[in-house]
Amino acid sequence: MKKFLTIISLILIPEIVFGAIIDCPYVGFGGNYNLLNYPNPIQKFEKIEEIEKLILNIGHFIKECLVKPALIAVIIIAGIYILISTGDPSKVQRGKNIILAAIIGLIIIFAAEEIANLFSKYIH
Fold first, then answer.
1. Spatial distance between the Cα atoms of 51 and 45, rounded to a whole number of angstroms
2. Contact 10, 72 (CB under 8 A)
C-alpha cells in the first residue's frame, strides 16, 4: 500500500502543480487560442504593428507554454532526486544545485521580461 501511495503521489503532485502554476491558454480547456489572437489580437498583416504583436505573441507562447513548464518540471525532478538519494550527500547537493539553477533561470526569465517591457515603453 505504501508503494501504491508513493506512485500515485508522484503522478498527481506534478499535475496539480502544473495546473495551478502554468497559464497556457493554447492547450487544454481554453485551446481555441493561437498565435494570431492571444494575448494580442491581430487583424491583418498590413501594418508593422501587427508583426510586432505576432512577435510578442510568439514570445508569450515560448515563455508561458515551453520555458516555465520545463523549469517547473526540472525543479520537481530535482526534488524527487533529493528524495531518492538515500542520504548520499553528493546526490543531495546535486539536487540542490539543480533546483538553484532552475530558480536562477526563472529569475532571468522574469527579469528579461521586465527589462523588455521597460524598453518598449520608451520606444513607443
1. 7
2. no
Half-sphere exposure of 64 (CA within 13 A, CB side): 17
User: What are the C-alpha distances in Å from 94 to residues 14, 28, 79?
Assistant: 21, 34, 10
Overall pTM > 0.90: no
- As a whole number of angstroms, the longest Cα–Cα distance in the chain is 63
Q: Which amino acid is at 101?
A: A
pLDDT per position as a tens digit, 61-98: 887 777 877 888 888 888 888 888 888 899 889 988 98
DSSP state of 30: G
Query: Could you tell me the three cell numbers for 40?
Result: 494580442
3-state secondary structure of 47: coil
Residues 99 and 38: their CA atoms lie apart, in Å, by 31
